[in-house]
Batch of 3 targets.
Target 1
Amino acid sequence: MIAAVTLGSNLGDRAAHLDFAIARLAALLDNLKASRYYDTVPVGVSGPQPIYLNAAAVGKTTLSARELLDGLLAIERERGRERPHDNAPRTLDLDLILFGDAVIVEPGLVVPHPRFRERRFVLEPLAEVAAGLRDPVTGKTADQLLLDLRAL
């Protein structure tokens, strides 16, 4: 199964947090391909926050979506991720964006990620590493979704 994960950090050594996550993701995803890092302004947060560093990674996995999510959460914890409130600043944020052509709605796990189509900080790095990866809901590729978003 092909999985797409986005990475973000806006606390501490942001690049080191993303480097760490990519190294750890290589144990969960075969043929891992990661985008370059993008500086992005915080979106959907309350109050001022530091600039984010974002990236995307794709690879193949034999894990279930739930097992992969559990692995992502473990990597976040290793980097000191705390969740004092929604959209709080973070050392590391890993989101499961796509999991093959699966559409999953379970407690704590929704794939495709519900807001990824409206987030440039997700679609730009995703289109860089997997332009042809399809959203199973719209049928559009990452590249097409990015073009749609830029047209707004």
Note: Residues 65-78 form the longest helix (14 residues).
Target 2
Amino acid sequence: MWILSLVHNRRKRRFWVWMAVLMVIGTAGCVCCYRYQKDFRNFSGETLCLLIHNASEARSAAAFFDADMMSAETEQTDVTIPYVFNETYRRYNALQASFGTDLEDYCGKVCVQYRFCLQADDAEEGRTLTLLVYDGRLIGGDISGNAFDGTMRGLVS
């Protein structure tokens, strides 16, 4: 009969306990670092925190994409992303690809939509910036012209 024993004396027992403790601490540290890095993204040399918990943090993120939005009027609403995308949602989701997200990952989820509307004397000059936030994380948005036939583009383009 063979018995395999890794612990013959106190020194070896202490060694293996410390090794296990170090492995747990190292794993926890790696997970925290990975999650911390996911909350930040670089866009053309500048870093943006993707965590948004209130309107003031949303305003800071909006100013990152368009500095004029610091003075814009803010509107906050809840939006449910549908389970089945129609053609409009498919095109909007294609805009989000430039931001690095896929809205299909959030089907059926309720998101907070922050809209920053910058009015101008000329309708051609006005624009609206929209941010979509799910569970405190910025998942996408767009910048659109306020003109009747205004164009829409992704946050990063």
Note: Residues 43-154 form one domain.
Target 3
Amino acid sequence: MAEEKILIIDDEKEIRELIRDYLEIEGYKVSMAEDGEIGLEKFNTFGPDLIVLDLMLPKIDGMEICKIVRGKSNLPILMLSAKKSDVDKVLGLGLGADDYMTKPFSPKELVARIKAQLRRVKQFSNSDYNNTNKSLKFKNLKIDLEGYNVYLNDQKIPFSAKEFEILKFLALNPERVYSREQIFNKIWGFNEYGDINTVTVHIRKIREKLEVDSKNPTYIETVWGVGYKFVGDKV
């Protein structure tokens, strides 16, 4: 049975309880919050392994919660929204959400996605690339493989779980070019939306955090017509 803790932040009581029931059947420990303020309180006290986060919330909306959580933790965030526009989806992922579902949704699919996110975090934390080093160092960049932390000039930089996984994947395979499809399939592990533009959004966010000039990157280069590669000499 699962031991992970899931926090559900949604202002619709029926949805909260529906998700809770399905997750508890799978053995997860569940806590719920009906607005953003309570959600942040429970994030600090409950210590969840994953958050199911509604986009539209009273008091503090899902976008702001996502920003706050990302400043403190890399835990997976699965965002829910009644809006079906791609703009909302890309925006949500760009802020650090790891997955996105629109309402109405299949509870079974939601549970499957939660399992996939938690499984992927375990895989990466268990050094799934058979890497024996605890960290990677490149000039002024340090990637803490065990702690899921990124340091630039000795300053910790907030990274979402997916941003970290992409950076780690590319850094462990320097100078090798990967297409967006390859990165998507490796990091997300499934192709529910077939939205490889998600990779582009995440690469842009990584560059904004690491590069002096994100349009002229020194770590993740674009190989036009092919994909991306990590460049940089280890220290």
Note: The chain has two domains: 5-125, 135-230.
